[in-house]
Design the sequence.
């Protein structure tokens, strides 16, 4: 039987940082208000598009695996923030990487997207259809935000994370996964005024906005992620005591704490970086996984549990068996194009528009 080992990992965080204190200069909020409710202290604002973030994370993952672009068979990009609806973002990533032999597709399952994409790519490896795939979670959530609404604009950030998976005879990589969707409540988390449901002849088009019913989302996220993780543990014939590290979706520190309490895990067993980046949607899990490896929290042979919950309402959990290598074979020294603008400067037009629209409504 074939398996799909994770042999490369990489992340891309744009350099412009927007702190809570900076947010408070144009939104009625404070560092204490945001931190106490979410655990978020800062987030990144991108000066490049989603494909460029995704491609940079992919380059770093390929370097870590020692794999060249022409040897990649598939590029799967999980994103809710495509650069274009037609063609897909994955084709742009393929173009940037020069991975001419790779198939390329996008998947939109919101914050659960990376897990959906990883399971799909893993399945293709395991049936022998492909040998290598790059799986990417990449988001530019700042583009969607209404910067006059503190209940949502404080939550999200931009970034990308990626893994490279390769066929192996050893039982490594994503061993078990459980995916699902609670569509009856899909309206409690949505981007309004976008897609073919919108009136294309409205002039001017309505501002994009995120409908976010926080308390309901919290309860459903904890329940779905917890049940998914428990199911995966049982499918893998493991117990919670066998889990070395939980890498959860980074949506809210309270959700992560609830999962930690449910499974009786120590702080050392739970990867948390929401304080630095906020919720980067489909990118949170691969970014957190990458940082866990980089910081030495992933040991050879580790049992890793991951879980996520997103709009739709999609949810999922997975059990990853790590291999022996926890250091990159090589490193990519490429960087994003430089910018001399601060996060507030990058957002200046959006902030002005949102505040003006809010005053006139």
Sequence:
């Amino acid at each position: 039987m074939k398996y799909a080992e994770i042999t490369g990992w990489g992340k891309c965080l744009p350099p412009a940082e927007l702190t809570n204190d900076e947010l408070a200069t144009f939104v009625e909020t404070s560092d204490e208000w945001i931190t106490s409710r979410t655990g978020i202290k800062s987030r990144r604002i991108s000066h490049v598009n989603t494909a460029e973030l995704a491609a940079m994370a992919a380059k770093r993952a390929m370097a870590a695996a020692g794999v060249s672009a022409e040897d990649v068979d598939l590029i799967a990009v999980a994103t809710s923030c495509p650069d274009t609806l037609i063609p897909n973002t994955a084709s742009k990533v393929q173009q940037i990487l020069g991975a001419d032999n790779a198939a390329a597709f996008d998947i939109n399952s919101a914050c659960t997207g990376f897990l959906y994409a990883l399971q799909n790519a893993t399945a293709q490896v395991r049936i022998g259809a492909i040998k290598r795939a790059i799986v990417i979670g990449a988001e530019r959530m700042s583009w969607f935000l209404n910067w006059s609404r503190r209940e949502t604009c404080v939550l999200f950030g931009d970034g990308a994370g990626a893994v490279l998976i390769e066929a192996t005879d050893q039982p490594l990589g994503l061993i078990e996964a459980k995916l699902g969707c609670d569509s009856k409540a899909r309206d409690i988390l949505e981007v309004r005024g976008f897609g073919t449901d919108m009136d294309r002849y409205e002039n001017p088009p309505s501002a994009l906005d995120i409908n976010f019913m926080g308390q309901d989302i919290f309860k459903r996220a904890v329940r779905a992620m917890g049940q998914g993780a428990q199911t995966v543990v049982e499918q893998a014939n493991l117990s919670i005591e066998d889990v070395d590290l939980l890498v959860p979706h980074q949506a809210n520190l309270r959700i992560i704490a609830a999962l930690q309490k449910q499974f009786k895990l120590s702080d050392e067993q739970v990867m948390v970086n929401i304080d630095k980046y906020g919720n980067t949607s489909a990118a949170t899990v691969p970014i957190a996984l990458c940082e866990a490896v980089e910081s030495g929290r992933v040991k050879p042979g580790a049992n890793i549990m991951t879980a996520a919950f997103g709009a739709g309402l999609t949810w999922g959990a997975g059990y990853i068996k790590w291999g022996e290598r926890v250091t990159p074979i090589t490193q990519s020294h490429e960087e994003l194009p430089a910018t001399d603008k601060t996060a507030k400067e990058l957002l200046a037009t959006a902030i002005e528009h949102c505040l003006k629209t809010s005053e006139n409504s």
